[in-house]
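Aggregate trends can hide what the representation actually does to any particular protein. The sequence in question and its structure tokens are set out directly beneath this paragraph.
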Amino acid sequence: MSMGRLVRAVSVDELPSGSMRTVDVEGRPILVANVDGVFYAMDAICSHEEWDLSEGMLEGGKVTCAGHGAVWDLATGTAEFDEELPRLNVYRTHVREGYVFVEVD
């Protein structure tokens, strides 16, 4: 499996454990989250009503959307909600030289 391009997203120092933020990665809003020192990256916009997921709540490996409460799994991009929602893209992350990089196609 070939690796995509790595794009620097955020400094590790700016994303302490238990926090998340939306960053622009080549024009795409991507949510980067730090869960106990493991970094996850996923599309940042909820596919239900287009809320920025960084406005929600991070608990473990899941993000609850502030808009209508869809609970997104950071590892799979799937949602738990009362209706089926399209899966969000998830991205591999790499930590190098104090920065989180997101792997994009």
Observations:
- Residues 5-94 form a domain with the Rieske Iron-sulfur Protein fold (CATH 2.102.10.10).
- The CA atoms of residues 15 and 91 lie 17 Å apart.
- The first strand starts at residue 5 and ends at 11.
